[in-house]
Amino acid sequence: MHTITSPDGTTIAYDRTGAGEPLILVGGAFSYRRFPGQVKLARLLSARFTVYSYDRRGRGDSGDTAPYSIEREIEDLAAVIDAAGGAACVWGLSSGAVLALDAAAAGLPIHRLAVQEPPLAVDPADRRPPAGLRQQVTRLTEAGQRGEAVRYYMVDGMGAPAFVPGLLHLIPGAWKKLTAVAGNFAYGSTGAPSAISRLARCGTANSSALAATSTPRWRVSRPRAWSA
């Protein structure tokens, strides 16, 4: 594990593996650098890249400094890019994809950008999360109701079918890992900002929107529409 210090004094933890062009992984609301899926991705990509997988603030081994703002998270990513040599490729998942887009729009030195399943509105008919999502998630976690915060964020916020939380309870260790990061869901509760406005600000050159083959059908339309 390596650490850097963000401009506001927050410690950011990261792992570095592989050799090649630097590539930074930005996890989503349920992710952190030791999350099994992110560890596997880093291992696969390390054959071609020097992979930097970091804990976003408030997750894993990274610190947290109040009050939260997206600008502080952009500064965190900028610090990781600086540790990687001053410029890098960036991959972002879900809310991490939105963070990566905002970082590119802010002028961070990102050579190539890949965003997977960004929770952005593409069509006026796209489903949008509740207006008070961040406030409700914060209320539930502060009340110690982390399990309910996970369920609310996943079903009401992300639009997952209502049976999904129940299925996750059946997977050994899965629910415990999700509730462990529930306190940071508010950091990823960006609502449903416009994909078009973000693309206009960051530019589309050397950018890709992705949906995995395992992506549920209810989450596929956004990357397809964006890439069309």
Descriptive overview:
- With 228 residues, the protein is α/β, with parallel strands linked by helices.
- The chain folds into two domains: 2-124 and 192-227, Rossmann fold (3-Layer(aba) Sandwich), CATH 3.40.50; 133-186, no CATH class.
- It contains nine helices and seven strands.
- It has helices at 36-45, 70-83, 95-105, 133-142, 146-157, 164-169, 174-180, 195-202, 221-227; strands at 2-5, 11-18, 21-26, 49-54, 88-93, 110-116, 207-210.
- It has a seven-stranded mixed sheet with strand order 1-2-4-3-5-6-7, sandwiched between helices.
- Helix 4 runs antiparallel to helix 5.
- The radius of gyration is 17 Å and the shape is globular.
- The chain starts with a strand and ends with a helix.
- Residues 191-196 and 224-228 have low confidence and may be disordered.
Strand content: 15-25%
Mean pLDDT rating: 82
Number of strands: 7
Q: Which H/E pattern describes the elements?
A: EEEHEHEHEHHHHHEH
CATH topology of the largest domain: Rossmann fold
Low-pLDDT stretches are 191-196, 224-228
Q: In whole angstroms, how far apart are the ends? A: 39 Å
Question: Largest sheet, described in full?
Answer: 7 strands, mixed
Spell out the CATH superfamily of the largest domain: Alpha/Beta hydrolase fold, catalytic domain
Q: Quick one: overall form?
A: globular
Q: Any idea of the CATH class of the largest domain?
A: Alpha Beta
- Give the fraction of residues assigned to helices: 25-40%
Query: How many separate helices?
Result: 9
Oligomer: single chain
Rg (C-alpha, Å): 17 Å
